[in-house]
Amino acid sequence: MAVIIKMENIIKSFPGVLANNNITLEIEEGEILCLLGENGAGKSTLMNILYGLYCHDQGNIYIKGEKVEFSGPGDAIDRGIGMVHQHFMLVPVFTVLENLILGSELVKGLSLDLLRSKKELEEISSRYGMEMNLDAYVRDISVGMQQRVEILKLLYRGADIMIFDEPTAILTPQEINELYKIMESLRKKGKTIIFITHKLKEVMEISDRVVVLRDGKVIEAVETKTTNVKELAQMMVGREVLFKTEKPDTKTGREILHVDNIYALNKRRLPALKGLSLNVSAGEVVGVAGIDGNGQTELVEVLTGLRKIGSGSILIDGINMENRKSGEFLDAGTAHIPEDRLLRGLILDFPLYENLILGYEDKKPFAKGIFLDFNAARDWAKKLIDKFDIRTAGVNVNAGTLSGGNQQKAVIARELQRNPKILIASQPTRGLDVGAIEFVHEKIMDAKKDNRAILLVSLELSEIMNLSDRILVIYEGKIIAEFKGGEVTEAEIGLMMAGGHR
Ligand SMILES: Nc1ncnc2c1ncn2[C@@H]1O[C@H](COP(=O)(O)OP(=O)(O)OP(=O)(O)O)[C@@H](O)[C@H]1O
Ligand SMILES: [Mg+2]
Questions:
Q1: Which pTM does this prediction carry?
Q2: Domain 3-237 adopts which CATH fold?
């Protein structure tokens, strides 16, 4: 196969970090190439360079043998390169169609030939098996659909080379399967795909070749069929990964979280929780399994004071939490790892040390009168960075400059250090590399050993199976089944998740 892109001796540094350290990478026309590497290895940076978003300090880029210099994404798009970022850049109050033609070269002034564009878009979407309603508003469609809009946008602009930065991190298992089908059909039509992911099973299923980065360097480039999950994990993190966490044998203590028959609406004011009850005791991990959209998000919100319940009751260590705000949930001993770290976990343009004390700036030892004791905050942050292996140039950089996985580690570090009575963990390992997942799982087990109560909400069934003492299945806003960890198979839980019966 012909080499379509060559990135040669690419060097890129940020203050205090050498993100890409002399990377040479060849991409063959029509392949699905997977870029793998631990959090902070330099994957997004390299792809942002290829897409013209970042300028490299040194090195060359060739497309079909011709040297190119990009001064922005516009140049990359002109050369047929498109990128789908992890966080979409769509306008929620516009329709799909309006989003698709926004900013496109084909649109000149007011003479929008909407009908023609629409026909063309319909043709493209059916050619690649991406049926969608072009007249729907983006705010009303699912995350998976929004991603399709982003992909369609690239195709409409004539992209031949498509970069996906962790496209599956936010998708449900069903949506992931659909994305694979789309990727297959893109490849069949001759498109070249570069794909970043942390899910090694996906790498094995979907890619032709894998390039592994570590510490800003290429460690390996292999054909997928010559390797396996274990070997890939080892290449990524430089040590063996076990994929199984030791569950400590702790005695469960008193009941910490008591939820009785709660009802709540979702953000579109439709019933989301419909008589849900559960409890979690000290020293116990309770996993909530379910297909996305069955009330998990609302459950986590009501348990952290971010959403009001209509009726029912929530007790934390015996305290009735009716009508309490999220700050009062914190004070009652709740910690929260939110499913969306950008929305609820971090303030990206605040320095890392402030993010690591969010929620307790006004408490000891960080409050000095009405002021923040900066030294105390920075010392604390340094300790957490060390303990949780957060890869960063220092405590003073803005949280937004951290790699996706390291942002997640920062949230987890802060929440676990609160020494909560109850930890509400929602998709805690989203976007983490296999080594970091193992580490976070160990930390959750340590919290269990320390007698904390833990409610784990995750779409990763293997994570739930691995960590939980009890597994609850949520379906249409209610708990419809309960299993003891270790006494049930993934298949059985899967059946219940779909609303079936044991
Ligand atoms: N805009 C920026 N400013 C400063 N530092 C940055 C910036 N972007 C990335 N970095 C740093 O460059 C390094 C590589 O980050 P990058 O985002 O490329 O990692 P990654 O491989 O994509 O990791 P992840 O899997 O966690 O997303 C990190 O140490 C990160 O902190
Ligand atoms: Mg990244």
A1: 0.88
A2: Rossmann fold (3.40.50)
